[in-house]
Design brief:
heterodimer; A: 222 residues; mainly alpha; MetI-like fold; 9 helices; B: 249 residues; alpha/beta; 6-stranded mixed sheet; 40% helix; globular; binds adenosine-5'-diphosphate; binds magnesium ion
């Protein structure tokens, strides 16, 4: 192996690479936000008693968790403007694609979390005289928040990692900048390693924060 | 209407889909009376208890609780009724995310508009009665089965119910824990004159506390008699077989 590592390039260009974090966070956390909204909405449809609403939710989940994200992003960013004359900036298209995908995954996480709460909790609450809405507010949601956190954290991390795919539509986030500099300086190993470290630090601190939130729970299920 | 029975069931029919679980069930329970329901597993004892507080809709017949007819009652009336009917479950069904205290005070605070202080005072008195005041700040995961069940009883009593329904309250418990829970139920009878419907197969306990015993099998009431007659002089062949089966356990 006669490759000579020259991490010195990172010294000079690390600030430029890290400058992409703003876009990474905008697309990452933006899509996390909309994933939660979509996930909650479709999970509600899935647990409703209406067959048609259930089927709509199932179709949504099955489409958007199976379509490869690259294809989804290209359709939204390049094909939609041609077919329907609607389109947005690379950042907007990316947030939409990642949200549609994340929403499908989040929907499954919410549904699993709600189903983890035994029906007997419902019965106990109703037998005290609580209404259905009070039962959901006082009994189901406070427990569901914690039972959905671990699977939901996985969804959020997937969202953050998927931001790297948005370089195909030229969102100037960290990975795009690494590619840009590589073309210029031919130092792919150093530059992509630098980008990876930035992502690892971001996602690492995010999952650490989520663990701290999980630890706020003082009780265990019985 | 002072002479009316507290609970009156007439020709009750309960189906799940096309399967009939209970058919033509009629009985009366007076105030302060203790009725024990027994019968083989799956005969519909839990279902019948749930019918009595309106958690299940019935497909035929009528039930009156304190002169409220359940089938004609609105959701609001049913909720008001459930506030006065306490229910205790085999698996306790405590709210795991609430401490003992919170489990007990949440319903009186939200439904009876008690202040936190009033509700807490009542809760402490109830915890004294069930014998575990020191567990007030524990979460259910830190309690033993017997302690959980006693908290569940206190939670139901906090609503000041006129009627208590117990669904196999001790069958998930070890023998010594059974005792502590059964003692609490016995005190409810002697000290509070509580009207109770119990599903249990603890024979010695039933002999002590039951005014009447009713056995269900194959959708119908097989035998209904005083506790003494039921155990010492059962009329029906099926009762004899059932009694033999549970004493042989
Ligand atoms: N929600 C339900 N849906 C359909 N069938 C049920 C439901 N709950 C109970 N059953 C059926 O009704 C019968 C009586 O059940 P249950 O009341 O739990 O019996 P027990 O308490 O006497 O053991 C059983 O055959 C059971 O499978
Ligand atoms: Mg049962």
């Amino acid at each position: 192996m006669d490759y000579v590592f020259q991490f010195g390039i990172l010294k000079e260009y690390a600030p430029y690479l890290a400058g992409g974090l703003g876009y990474t966070c905008m697309v990452g956390f933006g899509s996390i936000f909309f994933s939660i909204v979509l996930g909650l909405f479709f999970a509600t449809l899935q647990i409703s008693n209406n067959k048609i609403l259930k089927i709509i939710a199932l179709i949504y989940v099955d489409i958007f968790r199976t379509v490869p994200l690259v294809c989804l992003l290209i359709w939204i960013h390049y094909v939609m403007p041609i077919l329907f004359n609607v389109g947005g900036s690379p950042t907007q298209s990316s947030i939409i694609a990642l949200s549609l995908n994340g929403g499908a995954l989040a929907c499954e996480a919410f549904r699993g979390g709600l189903e983890a709460i035994p029906l007997t909790q419902n019965q106990a609450s109703l037998s005290l005289g609580f209404s259905r809405i009070q039962t959901i507010l006082f009994v189901i949601i406070p427990q569901a928040v914690y039972s959905v956190l671990p699977p939901l954290t996985n969804v959020f991390i997937t969202n953050l990692k998927n931001v790297t795919i948005t370089m195909i539509v030229s969102v100037p986030e960290v990975m795009f900048r690494a590619q840009e500099l590589t073309v210029q300086f031919f130092r792919p190993l150093e530059l992509y390693t630098g980008a990876a470290i930035i992502y690892i630090l971001l996602i690492g601190s995010f999952s650490y924060a989520m663990r701290r939130v999980e630890k706020l729970r003082k009780w265990e299920s019985i | 209407m002072a002479n009316e029975s507290f609970i009156k069931a007439r020709n009750l029919v309960k189906k799940y889909g096309s399967t009939t679980i209970l058919e033509d069930i009629s009985f009366d329970i007076n105030r302060s009376e203790v009725l024990v329901l027994c019968g083989p597993s799956g005969c519909g004892k839990s279902t019948l208890l749930r019918c009595l507080n309106g958690l299940e809709t019935i497909q035929g017949g009528q039930i009156w609780i304190d002169n409220v007819e359940l089938r004609g009652a609105s959701q609001k009336e049913l909720r008001a009724l459930r506030q006065r009917v306490g229910m205790v479950f085999q698996m306790f069904n405590l709210f795991p995310h609430m401490t003992t205290l919170k489990n007990i005070i949440i319903a009186p605070m939200k439904l009876l508009n008690k202040t936190k202080q009033q509700a807490t005072e009542d809760a402490m008195r109830l915890l004294e009665i069930v014998g575990i005041p020191e567990k007030v700040d524990e979460y259910p995961c830190a309690l033993s089965g017997g302690q959980r069940q006693r908290v569940a009883i206190a939670r139901a009593l906090a609503m000041k119910p006129d009627l208590m329904l117990f669904d196999e309250p001790t069958s998930a418990l070890d023998p010594e824990m059974k005792e502590e829970v059964l003692n609490v139920i016995e005190r409810l009878r002697t000290e509070e004159k509580m009207t109770m419907v119990l599903v249990t197969h603890e024979i010695n306990f039933v002999k002590n506390v039951a005014d009447r015993v009713m056995m269900i099998e194959d959708r119908e009431i097989v035998e209904e008699s005083s506790a003494k007659t039921f155990f010492e002089n059962p009329k029906e062949e099926r009762t004899k077989i059932f009694l033999k089966a549970i004493t042989d356990l």
